[in-house]
Design brief:
CATH superfamily of the largest domain: Fructose-1,6-Bisphosphatase, subunit A, domain 1
Number of strands: 14
Number of domains: 2
Distance between the termini: 32 Å
Largest sheet: 7 strands, mixed
């Protein structure tokens, strides 16, 4: 694919994420009228998720008809030129009126993440990255934290029912026992974007799906941080553990998280 083709898709990730975010925001402000169901224990689904994903996939297919789409709600399979979409990451927050959720869109070519956009329509923050070009929040260059003392670090620890409570509490115990503070805010995509912007010093989750994390992986790397090899094995199709952080705490975070 030409450089122009990659650039067109990069610009589209941001434009489509913003349009989708505007739709999500309208639903958020009128959520008393919104139908809410559950896909599983603590796995929320709203009618807004489906509408936002339909908007995103429709825009992509109209602009780039040869590309594949993989979405949280509509599914899909990996391809050489593929868009990966989470229409609303942080659906539990969204449904409960907590303004910490986002739209996450990543574009991947030949298993390389080329572009990513994560948009919080409530704060108006557009986090974006392009492979080899850097990462930005509303046009401002993002850099990971310069922290080098794990005992001063704050690590976000994501959680889902796909791993048992005992596994999560063991991870929490190891991280806090090594001296770090922790938080859990309910959106893995924003958690990764916050690592890229130095707001979190690291992010760890024992299992996360590709649509939650692909855009954030690119942002962390382009902002000077590191991640584990999330796509190893069948990570794209089945999800995997994610670990990301600032370079100054890599050794300690890897030891505490015990995520390869």
């Amino acid at each position: 694919m030409s450089e122009a083709g990659i650039e067109a898709r990069h610009l589209a990730t941001m434009a489509i994420a913003q349009e989708a975010g505007d739709l999500a925001r309208r639903h958020f402000l009128d959520r008393d009228a919104m139908a809410i169901t559950f896909k599983g224990p603590q796995d929320w689904l709203t009618e807004a998720d489906r509408q936002v994903e339909d908007l995103v996939t429709g825009r992509i297919r109209a602009a780039f008809p040869g590309d594949a789409c993989v979405g949280e709600e509509s599914g899909g399979t990996e391809a050489g030129s593929v868009w990966v979409i989470d229409p609303i990451d942080g659906t539990s927050n969204f449904a409960r009126g907590v303004p910490h959720f986002c739209i996450s869109i990543a574009y991947m070519r030949d298993r390389r993440i080329e572009s990513g956009a994560i948009y919080n329509p409530i704060t108006g923050e557009m986090f974006a990255a392009r492979r080899g070009r850097g990462a930005w929040c509303n046009g401002r260059t993002m850099k990971v934290s310069a922290i080098a003392d794990f005992k001063r670090a704050t690590i976000e620890l994501g959680w889902s029912t796909r791993r048992g409570v005992a596994d999560y509490t063991a991870l929490l115990t190891r991280v806090v026992g090594a001296g770090a503070s922790f938080r859990r805010a309910g959106s893995g995509a924003l958690g990764m974007a916050y690592v890229a912007d130095g707001r979190n010093d690291g992010y760890a989750e024992l299992h996360i799906n590709v649509w939650d994390v692909l855009a954030g992986i690119l942002m962390v790397v382009e902002a000077g941080g590191w991640t584990n090899d999330f796509l190893a094995g069948d990570g794209f199709a089945r999800g995997n553990a994610i670990l990301a952080g600032a370079p100054g705490i890599k050794k300690e975070l890897m030891a505490a998280a015990a995520i390869g």
